[in-house]
C-alpha cells in the first residue's frame, strides 16, 4: 500500500458561490424550485446575477466545502476539480490552498469560465441554488492522478459532478485505483436533482464502487423510489459498508455492518443559512472515520461541524472546528 499522505481526496466541482438574501416570491418569479439546485447556462447566470440583491462571493463546491471542514478539524486533504485561468479560478485556487488543501489540477486555458453558484437564502434559512458549471464539465479521467488517489485513505466523490460523461469516467477510474490501493471510496448523492437524473447510475455506483454513502432523507428515498425513510433504510442496508443518512433537525442514522446508530442534531441557537450543512456533516464524519472512531463518535463530530456552518452565512466554517470538538 502507498504511503498515506492525505486523509481525504475530494473530487468535485470547483465553484465560486455568490450568496444573497431572497424571499419566496423572488424564487417563484425566477422559477427556482425552493431548497433545490437548478443547472443554468451562462445567459441565465448573468440574468439571475443582475436580479440578485447585495451578494457575498466565496469559494464553494460541495466536495471542496467538505475538505475545508476537514482542514478546520486538522485533517490533511487534497482536491481535484477544474477551473479556468480567470479571476474566479484564481480566487478558488487561492482560497482552497489558503486553508491547507492540496490543489494541483491544471486550470483550463480555453473554453467556459470558472463555475459559479448563485445561492438565494430565504428567511427560513433554506438555500436555493442556480448553478452554472462552466469549466467544471471539462474534468476527465486524464485529471486523475493515480499516485494522489493511492495516497489518500478515502476518495470522496461529489454527486453534483456526475453529469458530464468524462466526469463519470473520472469517478470510476478514481474508485478503481483507490480499491486497488486498499483505500476506501465515499460518495455524496448531493441533491435530489442529481438523483432524479442519474438514479440507475448512482445505484450501480453504490453497489459496485462505494464504501461510504452520504445522503439526506429526500435523496435516499429518491434513490430507491420509496415513500418513507424506513423503506429507504431497508433498501440501502447492505448495499455498501456504511450509509450515513441525515434528517436535518431529526439528526442522522448511520448504518454500518448491519448495525444502526442514531445521532442527535447538535443544538443551534439560530439557524441562519443551511448552505453546506451536508458538506460539513460529511467532513465531521470522515474526520472521525479516518481516525478509527466508531460510528457514534463520527456522527457526533459530524453534527458539531454541521451545526457550526448553519449558524452563519456561507458553506465553510468560520470557527475552528477542532476547538469546537475539544470544547
Report on this structure.
With 327 residues, the chain is of the alpha/beta class. It has a single domain, classed as Ribokinase (UDP-N-acetylmuramoyl-L-alanine:D-glutamate ligase). The protein is 39% helix and 22% strand. It has twelve helices and 14 strands. The strands form two sheets. Strands 6-5-1-9-10-11-12-13-14 form a nine-stranded mixed β-sheet. The chain has a five-stranded mixed β-sheet with strand order 3-8-7-2-4. A hairpin with a 5-residue loop joins strand 7 and strand 8. The longest helix is centred in the middle third of the chain and has 18 residues. The radius of gyration is 18 Å and the shape is globular. The mean pLDDT is 93.
Task: Give a topology summary.
Layout: E1 6-11, E2 15-21, H1 24-29, E3 37-39, H2 42-51, E4 55-60, H3 62-73, E5 77-80, H4 87-98, E6 102-103, E7 115-121, E8 127-132, H5 146-150, E9 152-158, H6 165-180, E10 184-188, H7 192-209, E11 212-216, H8 217-223, H9 229-236, E12 242-246, E13 252-256, E14 259-263, H10 277-289, H11 295-309, H12 321-326
Parallel strand pairs: 1-5, 1-9, 2-7, 3-8, 5-6, 9-10, 10-11, 11-12
Antiparallel strand pairs: 2-4, 7-8, 12-13, 13-14
Amino acid at each position: 500500500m502507498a504511503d498515506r499522505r492525505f486523509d481525504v481526496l475530494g473530487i468535485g466541482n470547483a465553484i465560486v458561490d455568490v450568496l444573497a438574501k431572497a424571499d419566496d416570491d423572488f424564487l417563484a418569479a425566477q422559477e427556482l424550485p425552493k431548497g433545490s439546485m437548478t443547472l443554468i447556462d451562462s445567459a441565465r447566470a448573468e440574468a439571475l446575477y443582475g436580479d440578485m440583491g447585495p451578494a457575498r462571493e466565496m469559494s464553494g463546491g460541495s466536495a471542496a466545502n467538505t475538505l475545508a471542514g476537514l482542514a478546520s478539524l486538522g485533517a490533511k486533504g487534497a482536491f481535484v476539480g477544474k477551473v479556468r485561468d480567470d479571476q474566479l479560478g484564481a480566487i478558488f485556487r487561492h482560497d482552497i490552498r489558503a486553508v491547507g488543501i492540496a490543489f494541483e489540477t491544471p486550470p483550463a486555458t480555453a473554453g467556459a469560465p470558472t463555475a459559479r453558484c448563485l445561492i438565494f437564502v430565504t428567511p427560513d434559512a433554506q438555500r436555493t441554488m442556480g448553478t452554472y458549471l462552466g469549466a467544471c464539465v471539462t474534468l476527465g479521467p486524464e485529471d486523475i492522478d493515480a499516485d494522489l488517489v493511492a495516497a489518500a485513505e478515502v476518495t470522496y466523490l461529489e454527486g453534483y459532478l456526475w453529469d458530464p460523461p468524462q466526469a463519470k469516467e473520472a469517478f470510476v477510474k478514481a474508485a478503481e485505483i483507490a480499491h486497488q490501493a486498499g483505500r476506501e471510496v465515499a460518495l455524496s448523492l448531493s441533491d435530489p436533482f442529481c438523483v432524479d437524473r442519474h438514479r440507475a447510475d448512482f445505484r450501480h455506483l453504490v453497489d459496485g464502487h462505494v464504501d461510504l454513502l452520504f445522503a439526506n432523507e429526500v435523496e435516499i428515498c429518491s434513490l430507491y423510489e420509496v415513500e418513507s425513510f424506513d423503506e429507504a433504510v431497508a433498501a440501502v442496508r447492505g448495499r455498501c459498508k456504511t450509509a450515513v443518512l441525515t434528517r436535518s433537525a431529526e439528526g442522522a442514522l448511520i448504518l454500518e455492518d448491519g448495525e444502526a446508530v442514531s445521532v442527535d442534531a447538535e443544538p443551534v441557537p439560530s439557524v441562519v443559512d443551511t448552505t453546506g450543512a451536508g458538506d460539513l456533516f460529511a467532513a465531521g464524519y470522515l474526520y472521525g472515520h479516518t481516525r478509527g472512531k466508531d460510528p457514534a463518535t463520527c456522527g457526533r463530530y459530524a453534527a458539531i461541524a454541521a451545526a457550526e456552518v448553519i449558524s452563519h452565512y456561507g458553506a465553510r466554517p468560520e470557527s475552528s472546528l477542532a476547538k469546537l470538538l475539544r470544547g
